[in-house]
Design a protein that fits this description.
mainly alpha, Rossmann fold, 3-stranded parallel beta sheet, two-stranded parallel sheet, 57% helix
Length: 160
């Protein structure tokens, strides 16, 4: 299973001390160059920058299709754009949290999973020994934005 990530889930998981989750589930995660720049270069000194830089299982991959990047980045951020295009190119699952880019990715036929979805799966598989509610509270405490709608959706689907 191939996985491509945008910056949001990597930063959020690093802030929570849970960046190991994608590695445990997928082995390696691909990111486009713009996500590397956002998290590691421009994000130097911020949460997640050093964690991502040190994670040898996170692989930077060339997107290649500059025309598609230029067109789609008129509507959404360049990191989200490159992640969507790379995921489509690699026929990968996309890790992304932002609503509009997720809708675009799904309209292109991509499977999308967000930070909370990954955390929930990790709790179910006993990879994380905290409750879903504890993680949500920790996210809010650490100023990781997450909508009530997403929380309720996960609770409904998983019958928490």
């Amino acid at each position: 299973m191939i996985v491509v990530s945008n910056s949001g889930p990597l930063i959020a998981l690093a802030k929570l001390g849970l960046l190991f989750i994608p590695k445990d589930f997928f082995g390696e995660v691909f990111i486009p160059e713009e996500v590397w720049k956002e998290v590691v270069e421009r994000g130097k000194g911020k949460p997640g920058a050093d964690d991502v830089k040190r994670s040898n299982w996170i692989k930077v991959h060339e997107v290649g299709d500059r025309l598609c990047v230029d067109i789609l980045s008129r509507d959404i951020g360049r990191g989200e754009t490159e992640a969507i295009i790379l995921a489509k190119k690699m026929d990968a699952i996309l890790m992304m949290d932002e609503r509009i880019p997720r809708e675009i990715a799904r309209s292109l036929g991509l499977e999308v999973i967000g930070t909370l979805g990954l955390v929930y799966m990790a709790i179910e598989k006993k990879i994380v020994n905290k409750s879903f509610e504890e993680i949500v509270l920790e996210m809010r405490k650490r100023k990781i934005w997450i909508s009530d709608e997403i929380i309720e959706d996960i609770k409904k689907r998983s019958k928490i």
